[in-house]
Amino acid sequence: MRPLIAGNWKMHGSLLDSAALAEAVSAGAATAGPAAELLVCPPFPYIQPTAAALLGKGVAVGGQDCHAAAKGAHTGDVAAVMLRDVGATHVILGHSERRADHGETDAAVRAKAEAALAAGLTPIVCVGESEAQRLAGKAEAVVTGQLDGSLPEGFAAAGGVVAYEPVWAIGTGRTPTEAEIAAIHAAIRANLTAQFGAPGGGLRILYGGSVKPGNAKAILALPHVDGALVGGASLVAADFLAIAAAAG
Ligand SMILES: O=C[C@H](O)COP(=O)(O)O
Which NCBIfam families match (predicted)? Predict the structure, then answer.
């Protein structure tokens, strides 16, 4: 399975910064990790110029969220079809920051994923436990529960992507042990196969949470880790490309 290295730029940078970052990533894309598929997810206003700059350069562009409706009176929201219209091919959904900041439930994430599929976007659905849930021994149950509630019918047929991001590992410099990552990814694979049959076995499962050039090789080598969702390190082209290189 071709690894996917996705950069989530979150709410960082300016128009000039995003142009420079896109340019630097595309300049190194051909040589750094040619085996990996690269994706960057800028803030909404920078998606169109980033997609235009990266067209034909081997780096795809995605959104960080979309609304569940195709259109309508939803001030401040963006429809999946609009993302598609300006050159996005993917959309991150259910990131823990959106679940926390906007109260997004599994049902809401599922509805957004349905909209993404209808618009022809590949959804990247995020799941992950809090630190308290991990300490209580509930990490696997939380993650599989989120998968049960967040993934729509048709997710596997469309090649949807799951990202496991332990909330406590995001932006903290802390990560689970390799054994802990492997255990959750195996549980996710089992859940996808149970939900979707054989096609679920072929879906990519990304790890996210403090992925850096220094730990990427070990994490990406784990079974059922099919790429990474990278936050902070994706804002530095050399680091993002080094992570891609670690994917082989
Ligand atoms: O979407 C990306 C994640 O939230 C990971 O962020 P991080 O690499 O800064 O820990």
Answer: tim
